[in-house]
Design brief:
6 helices, single chain, alpha+beta, two-stranded antiparallel sheet
Length: 178
């Protein structure tokens, strides 16, 4: 990462610091949407760096299941500081700490990132929706749709962040970086 300059250096430093000072010490899992919203806003407001928040899907390569996930992009390079720690690592295998498409810390698996579900992922999702996981699949689909819309509007992202539990709000994450 030492060879980075300009906006790439700022994004890398900020993301690594957030991981080392907030995500890792708190063992914060399941927060890809909030962390992505935070990083996008912090980089824009505090560092004047424009990045794109993305809500898409990840796949760990062990099956066709695709999980809704959020990450940042700068010049089409992905930064993801939330997939390295997972709440249930025996179910959702940890991935790399990804900084501008470079794995800073390796994970158990190498995730593939998609803006849209693949045909195989969609078919697997539909199969799961027919069984006992019907309600969970419907909930996750609705959450994905909401987050996809939310990430397109800064005011909606800020409102969503403001409703986060104490300790996970914008100012809480900001405090570890300034």
């Amino acid at each position: 990462m030492a060879d980075l300059a300009g906006d790439e250096a700022v994004v890398a430093e900020t993301a690594v610091n957030l991981f080392e000072r907030f995500v890792f010490p708190k063992r914060y899992t399941g927060g890809c949407y909030l962390v992505t919203m935070f990083l996008q806003r912090f980089l824009k407001e505090e560092k004047t760096v424009a990045v794109t928040p993305v809500v898409g899907y990840v796949n760990d390569g062990t099956d066709d299941i695709m999980i809704s996930h959020a990450w940042l992009e700068l010049n089409s390079l992905k930064t993801d500081v939330t997939l390295h720690l997972t709440e249930y690592p025996e179910i959702q295998l940890p991935g790399a700490l990804l900084i501008l498409d470079q794995p800073l810390l390796k994970g158990q698996v190498e995730h593939s990132y998609y803006r849209e579900q693949t045909a195989a992922g969609y078919a697997e999702n539909q199969r799961l929706a027919l069984g006992s996981l019907r309600r969970m699949v419907a909930h996750k689909d609705a959450e994905h749709a909401y987050m996809s819309e939310c990430m397109t509007e800064p005011a909606r992202m800020a409102a969503h962040q403001a409703k986060a539990p104490r300790g996970l709000r914008y100012d809480d994450m900001r405090a570890v970086l300034v």
